[in-house]
Amino acid sequence: MAWMYLALAALFEIGWAIGLKQAAKEPGVAVWGVTVAAMVASVVFLGLAVRELPLGTAYAIWTGVGTAGVFLAGVILFGESADVLRVLCVAAILGGVFGLKLLSA
Questions:
Q1: Burial code of 67-98, b = ≥16 C-beta within 10 A, e = fewer?
Q2: How confident is the model over 73-98, as a mean pLDDT?
Q3: Is the pLDDT assigned to residue 105 strictly greater than 80?
Q4: 35-47: per-residue pLDDT in tens?
């Protein structure tokens, strides 16, 4: 169950980052409300995950998956650059995330 909580935490992290970008473009109570709700949900699910997972592992995976997800969202939704060096850097982050997952008991 802890891994599912961690996955939800990472998804909500991606959601609030996208929300920040939207709020910068179109500020409004609804956009900010959804963004803040996603922030809270992300931290709550991370807190539930660390009940069973090592803190360092959970936090690294949370931020790593969030980083990769936000990178991908930026490319798809906002037309940000996906040049080879940026993609390789994100791939390195994901490699570390998968390594931590494999090494966790």
A1: bbbbbebbeeeeeeeeeeeeeeebeebeeebe
A2: 92
A3: no
A4: 999 999 999 999 9
**In the chain, where the domains are located:** 2-103
Residue 13: how many CB atoms within 10 A of its CB?
Answer: 24
- Range name among 23-27, 68-72, 80-84, 101-105 with the lowest pLDDT average: 101-105
Mean pLDDT value across the chain = 93
| Cα–Cα distance for residue pair 83/33, rounded to 1 Å | 33
Query: Which pLDDT does position 100 carry in this prediction?
Result: 80
Helices (H) and strands (E) in the chain, counts: 4, 0
> Tokens representing 19?
């929300």
Which among 26, 65, 71 is positioned nearest to 42, based on CA atoms? 65
Q: Are 78 and 104 in contact (CB under 8 A)?
A: no
Cα gap 34→36, rounded to integer Å: 6
